[in-house]
Write a structure and sequence with these properties.
- The complex is a heterodimer of chains A (108) and B (116).
- By secondary structure, chain A is mainly β.
- In chain A, 0% of the residues lie in helices and 44% in strands.
- Chain A is built from no helices and nine strands.
- Chain A has strands spanning 9-12, 18-23, 33-37, 44-47, 61-65, 69-74, 83-91, 96-99, 103-107.
- In chain A, strands 1, 3, 4, 7, 8 and 9 form a six-stranded mixed sheet that branches. Chain A has a three-stranded antiparallel sheet with strand order 2-6-5, with no helix packed on it.
- Chain A starts with 8 loop residues before the first strand and ends with a strand.
- By secondary structure, chain B is mainly β.
- In chain B, strands 2, 4, 5, 6, 9, 10 and 11 form a seven-stranded mixed sheet that branches.
- In chain B, β5 (43-51) and β6 form a beta hairpin.
- The chains are: A mainly beta (108), B mainly beta (116).
- The A-B interface holds A 1, 31, 33, 35, 37, 42-45, 48-51, 54, 84, 86, 88, 90, 92, 95-102 and B 33, 35, 42-45, 48, 56, 58-59, 92, 94, 97-104, 106-109.
């Protein structure tokens, strides 16, 4: 089965840049999406690989995909960015939707 | 916009039907799905409904779980049979932007606990 691997945690100081990675086989051929989940809340889409940032998501959130690694970049990190972040793709080989293992972002 | 219900405590081997009432868009012209999250764990995809005749389920839930919709009630369902302890989780319904796209609208989730 298809696997997306994310680092368990990333720590970043306020005002700095956080780069969250998502590794998967042949990832460049897939559209990678990113969601954020704060404790006790439902996930929220922050970047769609097809359509970019939904309304309400600040420009500080951006994403890239270099073929093997997808990256969510959070610029000028704020305390409110502290959350779990999940990458996800639709795997056409298995016809399965796949979530990454998730990264907990801690703002120092 | 999406309101789940039907969760609760059930014994192993039992059944539950979850509902997801949608108020802001028609379920029959949108792709819909279910995602779950076990306590303290990450997100796990459960099922997708593209049309009444095109559904997908995760391997561990295939043949036990069935996703469906009622367009007259504008509601998505997840019928869960032969429940196991490891099915304990918060179950979210969500809308898929497009085929292969992102889940862009989520409900608040309903808790399912499988325990004797």
């Amino acid at each position: 089965s298809y696997v997306l691997t994310q680092p368990p945690s990333v720590s970043v100081a306020p005002g700095q840049t956080a780069r969250l990675t998502c590794v998967g086989s042949n990832l460049g051929s897939k559209s990678v999406h990113w969601s954020r989940q704060k404790p006790g809340q439902a996930p929220v889409l922050v970047v769609s690989g097809d359509s970019g940032r939904p309304s309400g998501i600040p420009e500080r959130f951006s994403a890239s995909n270099n073929g093997y690694t997808a990256t969510l970049t959070i610029s000028r990190v704020e305390a409110g960015d502290e959350a779990d972040y999940f990458c996800q793709v639709w795997d056409t080989t298995s016809d399965h939707y796949v979530f990454g293992t998730g990264t907990k972002v801690t703002v120092l | 916009q999406l309101v789940e219900s039907g969760g609760g405590l059930v014994q192993p081997g039992g059944s539950l039907r979850l509902s997801c009432a949608v108020s802001s868009f028609p379920v029959n012209s949108n792709y819909m799905g279910w995602v779950r999250q076990a306590p303290g764990k990450g997100l796990e995809w459960v099922s997708l409904l593209y049309s009444d005749r095109l559904t997908y389920h995760a391997d561990s839930m295939k043949a036990r779980f069935t996703v469906s919709r009622d367009t007259s009630r504008n509601t998505l369902y997840l019928q869960m049979n032969s429940l196991r302890v490891e099915d304990t989780a918060v179950y979210y319904c969500a809308r898929l932007q497009n085929w292969g796209g992102a889940f862009d609208v989520w409900g608040q989730g309903t808790m399912v606990t499988v325990s004797s």
